[in-house]
Give the backbone structure.
Amino acid sequence: QASTVMRVRVAPIAVSHVLVLAEDHTHARRVEEIRRDFVANVSHELKTPVGGISLLAEAVLDARDDPEAVERFAQRIMVESSRLSRLVQEIVDLSRLQVADTLHEPELVDVGVVAAEAVDRVRVAAEARRIDLTLVSEQGLRVFGDAELLATAVANLVTNAVNYSGSGTHVGIGARRVGDSVEVSVTDQGEGIPAAEQERIFERFYRVDAARSRATGGTGLGLAIVKHVCANHGGRVSVWSQEGRGSTFTMTLPAAADRPRAVADEPGPT
Ligand code: ADP
């Protein structure tokens, strides 16, 4: 009743203000919902490795007279704790990216160099699975941004390409200029992603196959990080994929102007 009376009084003078206020309110509620979901997800995701580590520690104590068993359990504790520390790191990275929405101190970044650095980070894991990585990059591809974040994003895509492909396959990484954009794409010959899931994989903690993701040491945050890094650079990430054939992920970033206006370009005092 009260709200009807108010709307009648307010509407003739400021309909748009009323609408904007209502939208702000919905937005704030949505942000709060997202925050609550994130906290719930995080505690759920942390409980798995923490629970695993404490069970394994008990197993070590029970098996104290059997050195082989002790070693086996200790190895698994190491695997679980490294997954846990990666998870914590990625949660922190993602929270920062979400809060910031923009970049701290953007600089001119050479995307070819960033892509090479990202490929290097994944090379050992790829070799272990006999997957060969090929990088083809144009020269002088520049964007304005954060080199470390961009390298993390590309490395996440290459890591996934390796993790979700069979041994002996090929992963291609390409960087090129397309119009006003710089594109970095990662193509694999892996298992592919069902069409119905292709949008959801960019959500935090969403996995097509949770057991498979866990087996590869995945945290479920890799693609959410890629999405936020692209958004913070004014770009986006997209996926093309066919089940059983493979996937291509493409990051599209606004190219920096060919010749940035530097201090030296300013007409100096004569
Ligand atoms: P994860 O740590 O589980 O790999 P991501 O956020 O990086 O988390 O990816 C989310 C899910 O998307 C993965 O669990 C997997 O199901 C799917 N996925 C990501 N990249 C690929 C790929 N190259 N090929 C097939 N599936 C993929």
